[in-house]
């Protein structure tokens, strides 16, 4: 793909939209990754470029959410080692996987994302009344899996984190979103470095996306104080199914 003003504008707008949606709920990679692939990026390079763009935006989001008091740093810091541990293995797999296999997996996962976005916040059962005093073995393994998935595919990661964090902590959705964005920033930061070293990032496009993501993260953290998230979930549901269908159609054409 040749860099041009056309792509610069598209990726700038994509950065705003993705980080705004992720600030409020999650699942925006179900929109950005297939759009990048349909624009002509190889799937694994789209995966790396998308991560780097989102990392910058999440820095803005985390800064603002911490300022508004939405992040329980004690819980976030306790969970971070487990998430990063899993992300190491997930990122390694994401870098070595074949582009065709990744696109097939992505299409089916996007349908799952549409289903997840329609669930309530407690699909894993009743949450505790208060967060546990320390991270147990089961929780470490559970959040290591969360990190593995985030390092590997990332699509729908926001919903997976919301479900896991709600089951683990019992916190309200705004606090869960704060912790989710904190954890996402750190595993995306380290996985982005790995993708860059592996040569799977288009810097110009990632930079355009990152500039847009700064604005998206700022406005998303502001909107979280005032608005319901249901409309975000509906957009993700419809778009995920439509884009998944387009990816599968493209695969059948080329096979």
State which percent range the strand residues make up: under 5%
Count helical runs.
Answer: 10
Summarize the amount of helix as a percent range: over 70%
Mean pLDDT value: 80
Order of helices and strands: HHHHHHHHHH
First-residue to last-residue Cα separation: 22 Å
Integer-rounded radius of gyration: 17 Å
Q: Which spans of ≥5 residues are poorly predicted at pLDDT below 50?
A: none
How many extended strands? Answer: 0
Characterize the quaternary organization of these chains: single chain
The assigned structural class equals mainly alpha
- What profile does the largest beta sheet have? none
Shape summary: globular
What does the secondary structure layout of this molecule look like, with pairings?
Elements: H1 5-24, H2 29-38, H3 43-67, H4 73-96, H5 99-116, H6 137-152, H7 157-169, H8 173-197, H9 203-223, H10 230-254
Question: Describe it for me?
Answer:
The structure is a single chain. The protein is mainly alpha-helical and 255 residues long. The protein is 77% helix and 0% strand. The chain has helices at residues 5-24, 29-38, 43-67, 73-96, 99-116, 137-152, 157-169, 173-197, 203-223, 230-254.
């Amino acid at each position: 793909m040749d860099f041009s003003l056309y792509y610069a504008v598209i990726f700038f707008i994509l950065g705003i939209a993705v980080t705004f949606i992720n600030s409020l709920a999650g699942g925006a990679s179900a929109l950005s990754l297939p759009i990048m692939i349909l624009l002509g990026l190889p799937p694994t390079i789209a995966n790396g470029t998308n991560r780097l763009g989102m990392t910058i935006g999440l820095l803005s989001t985390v800064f603002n959410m911490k300022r508004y008091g939405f992040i329980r740093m004690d819980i976030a810091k306790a969970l971070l080692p487990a998430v990063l541990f899993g992300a190491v293995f997930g990122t390694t797999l994401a870098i070595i996987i074949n582009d065709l296999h990744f696109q097939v997996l992505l299409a089916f996962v996007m349908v799952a994302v549409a289903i997840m976005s329609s669930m309530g916040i407690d699909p894993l059962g009743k949450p505790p009344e208060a967060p546990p005093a320390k991270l147990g073995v089961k929780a470490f393994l559970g959040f290591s899996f969360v990190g593995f998935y985030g390092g590997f595919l990332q699509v729908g990661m926001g919903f997976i984190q919301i479900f896991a964090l709600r089951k683990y902590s019992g916190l309200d959705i705004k606090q869960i979103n704060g912790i989710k964005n904190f954890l996402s920033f750190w595993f995306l930061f380290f996985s982005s470095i790995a993708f860059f070293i592996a040569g799977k990032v288009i810097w110009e496009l990632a930079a355009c996306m990152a500039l847009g993501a700064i604005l998206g993260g700022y406005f998303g953290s502001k909107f979280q104080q005032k608005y319901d998230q249901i409309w975000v979930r509906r957009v993700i549901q419809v778009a995920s199914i439509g884009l998944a269908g387009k990816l599968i159609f493209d695969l059948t054409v080329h096979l």
